[in-house]
Design goal:
With about 170 residues, the chain is an alpha+beta fold. About 30% of the residues lie in helices and about 25% in strands.
Length: about 170
């Protein structure tokens, strides 16, 4: 599947000494794709959907206020879990604390029922845009036609894009 190819590229990137961390997702803030995927969760609230690998939340510097982030095992086993933004949690369960949201279930059309494992502080899809409720899930093996990669380089080791291009192009 295309997802398997993207995961292979991600592992190649993570193995390079000049790359300190790498992650991938079907979109990134400012990319806009998540805005196109805005299912109605629990029949009440529209929220964007990002499907990501482990490390994506951390690469963005997003603040996890409860629970945990998407992990490699969640991706590998296609676990039906989700990390949601605090504003979505407040819209769905106004009287629940961040901790009380953990373990609750989310349902949306054409999506598996998902168990909430984490709550993020609010995130903007792009600078200057209003906050948008977001659901972040592990990428699925069903495949994607494109994937955004996030890469953080190792301090003092410049990244030569030409050196990683063959692995990215082979996907």
């Amino acid at each position: 599947s295309s997802t398997a190819r993207y995961l292979a590229v991600l592992e190649h990137l993570r193995a390079r000494p000049e790359i300190a961390a790498a992650a991938a997702g079907d979109s990134t803030p400012g990319g806009g794709a998540a805005a196109m995927q805005a299912p109605q969760w629990d029949g009440r609230v529209r929220a964007g959907l990002w499907q990501v690998t482990d490390g994506w939340v951390e690469m963005l510097g997003a603040q996890l206020v409860a629970g945990e982030s998407i992990r490699a095992v969640d991706v590998a086993e296609e676990r039906p879990v989700a990390v949601i933004t605090r504003d979505l949690a407040r819209q769905l369960w106004p009287d629940a604390s961040d901790q009380e949201v953990l373990g609750r279930r989310l349902v949306a059309p054409d999506q598996p029922e998902r168990r909430i494992i984490g709550v993020l502080a609010e995130m903007r899809q792009a600078p200057g845009r209003p906050l948008q409720p977001m659901v972040i899930t592990p990428i699925a093996a069903s495949g994607f036609w494109m994937m955004d990669f996030l890469v953080r380089t190792t301090a003092g080791q410049p990244l030569n894009p030409q050196a990683i291009l063959p692995a990215v192009q082979s996907a």
